[in-house]
Amino acid sequence: MKYQSHDLFAGGVLAVANHVANFANSVKLVTVLGERDSHEDFIRSQLTSNIDPLFIVQDNAPTLIKRRFIEGYSLNKLFEVYVMDSSGLNGEKNNQLCQWVQEHAANFGLVIAADFGHGARGDEVRRKREKNNFRR
Fold it and tell me: 54 near 29, Cβ under 8 Å?
Protein backbone atom coordinates (compact mmCIF):
# COMPACT_ATOMS: atom_id res chain seq x y z
CA MET A 1 0.00 0.00 0.00
CA LYS A 2 1.20 3.48 -0.81
CA TYR A 3 -0.29 6.63 0.66
CA GLN A 4 -1.19 9.08 -2.08
CA SER A 5 -3.66 11.61 -0.71
CA HIS A 6 -6.52 12.31 1.65
CA ASP A 7 -9.84 14.13 1.60
CA LEU A 8 -11.85 15.56 4.46
CA PHE A 9 -15.64 15.25 4.56
CA ALA A 10 -18.28 16.44 6.98
CA GLY A 11 -20.36 13.29 7.29
CA GLY A 12 -22.94 11.94 9.70
CA VAL A 13 -25.27 14.51 11.24
CA LEU A 14 -23.36 17.29 9.46
CA ALA A 15 -24.25 15.78 6.09
CA VAL A 16 -27.87 15.33 7.21
CA ALA A 17 -28.07 18.99 8.29
CA ASN A 18 -26.53 20.18 5.02
CA HIS A 19 -29.02 18.14 2.99
CA VAL A 20 -31.99 19.45 4.98
CA ALA A 21 -30.63 23.00 4.61
CA ASN A 22 -31.10 22.65 0.84
CA PHE A 23 -34.89 22.84 1.24
CA ALA A 24 -35.42 24.46 4.65
CA ASN A 25 -35.05 28.16 5.42
CA SER A 26 -33.42 27.51 8.77
CA VAL A 27 -31.84 24.45 10.37
CA LYS A 28 -30.85 24.10 14.01
CA LEU A 29 -28.17 21.44 14.47
CA VAL A 30 -27.51 20.00 17.92
CA THR A 31 -24.62 17.57 18.08
CA VAL A 32 -21.69 16.43 20.21
CA LEU A 33 -18.06 17.41 19.72
CA GLY A 34 -15.15 16.06 21.69
CA GLU A 35 -13.22 18.27 24.08
CA ARG A 36 -9.95 16.99 22.59
CA ASP A 37 -9.35 17.56 18.89
CA SER A 38 -12.77 19.15 18.44
CA HIS A 39 -12.22 20.14 14.77
CA GLU A 40 -14.84 22.84 15.41
CA ASP A 41 -13.36 25.30 12.89
CA PHE A 42 -13.43 22.69 10.11
CA ILE A 43 -16.95 21.59 11.06
CA ARG A 44 -18.27 25.16 11.09
CA SER A 45 -16.65 25.81 7.70
CA GLN A 46 -18.50 22.83 6.21
CA LEU A 47 -21.98 23.86 7.34
CA THR A 48 -24.35 25.70 5.01
CA SER A 49 -24.95 29.32 6.06
CA ASN A 50 -28.57 28.68 7.13
CA ILE A 51 -27.50 26.10 9.75
CA ASP A 52 -27.26 27.32 13.34
CA PRO A 53 -25.19 24.79 15.32
CA LEU A 54 -25.24 24.06 19.03
CA PHE A 55 -22.28 21.92 20.07
CA ILE A 56 -22.43 19.93 23.30
CA VAL A 57 -18.85 19.12 24.33
CA GLN A 58 -18.07 15.61 25.57
CA ASP A 59 -15.41 15.88 28.28
CA ASN A 60 -12.06 14.13 27.78
CA ALA A 61 -13.08 12.72 24.41
CA PRO A 62 -12.07 13.36 20.81
CA THR A 63 -14.55 14.39 18.14
CA LEU A 64 -15.39 11.29 16.11
CA ILE A 65 -13.11 10.84 13.11
CA LYS A 66 -13.41 7.99 10.63
CA ARG A 67 -10.36 7.23 8.53
CA ARG A 68 -11.24 5.15 5.52
CA PHE A 69 -8.56 3.49 3.47
CA ILE A 70 -9.58 3.26 -0.17
CA GLU A 71 -7.88 1.31 -2.96
CA GLY A 72 -7.07 3.89 -5.63
CA TYR A 73 -8.00 2.04 -8.81
CA SER A 74 -11.32 0.38 -7.91
CA LEU A 75 -12.20 2.86 -5.12
CA ASN A 76 -13.13 -0.09 -2.89
CA LYS A 77 -13.01 0.61 0.84
CA LEU A 78 -10.34 -1.66 2.34
CA PHE A 79 -10.92 -0.82 5.99
CA GLU A 80 -11.63 2.07 8.33
CA VAL A 81 -10.33 3.22 11.68
CA TYR A 82 -12.50 5.17 14.14
CA VAL A 83 -10.99 7.68 16.56
CA MET A 84 -13.78 7.95 19.13
CA ASP A 85 -15.04 7.60 22.68
CA SER A 86 -18.47 5.94 22.69
CA SER A 87 -18.99 6.26 26.45
CA GLY A 88 -21.59 9.00 25.92
CA LEU A 89 -22.18 12.29 27.64
CA ASN A 90 -21.76 12.65 31.40
CA GLY A 91 -24.85 13.36 33.50
CA GLU A 92 -24.54 17.16 33.36
CA LYS A 93 -24.02 17.28 29.58
CA ASN A 94 -26.78 14.74 28.99
CA ASN A 95 -29.11 16.91 31.10
CA GLN A 96 -28.09 19.96 29.04
CA LEU A 97 -29.02 18.11 25.85
CA CYS A 98 -32.31 16.83 27.31
CA GLN A 99 -33.20 20.32 28.57
CA TRP A 100 -32.56 21.80 25.14
CA VAL A 101 -34.72 19.16 23.44
CA GLN A 102 -37.54 19.71 25.93
CA GLU A 103 -37.45 23.52 25.63
CA HIS A 104 -36.95 23.94 21.88
CA ALA A 105 -37.86 20.92 19.79
CA ALA A 106 -41.61 21.56 19.86
CA ASN A 107 -40.98 24.90 18.11
CA PHE A 108 -39.79 23.21 14.92
CA GLY A 109 -41.83 21.92 11.99
CA LEU A 110 -39.62 18.82 11.76
CA VAL A 111 -37.23 17.15 14.19
CA ILE A 112 -34.76 14.61 12.82
CA ALA A 113 -32.86 12.51 15.33
CA ALA A 114 -29.96 11.06 13.36
CA ASP A 115 -28.42 8.38 15.55
CA PHE A 116 -25.35 6.64 14.17
CA GLY A 117 -24.78 4.57 17.31
CA HIS A 118 -21.73 6.37 18.67
CA GLY A 119 -23.14 7.04 22.14
CA ALA A 120 -24.02 10.73 21.79
CA ARG A 121 -27.77 10.34 22.18
CA GLY A 122 -28.82 8.41 25.24
CA ASP A 123 -32.14 6.87 26.30
CA GLU A 124 -33.19 9.97 28.23
CA VAL A 125 -33.06 12.14 25.08
CA ARG A 126 -35.11 9.50 23.26
CA ARG A 127 -37.71 9.52 26.06
CA LYS A 128 -37.94 13.35 25.95
CA ARG A 129 -38.48 13.20 22.21
CA GLU A 130 -41.19 10.53 22.55
CA LYS A 131 -42.88 12.40 25.42
CA ASN A 132 -43.23 15.42 23.14
CA ASN A 133 -44.71 13.22 20.38
CA PHE A 134 -41.70 13.49 18.07
CA ARG A 135 -41.35 10.71 15.56
CA ARG A 136 -38.31 9.11 14.02
Answer: yes
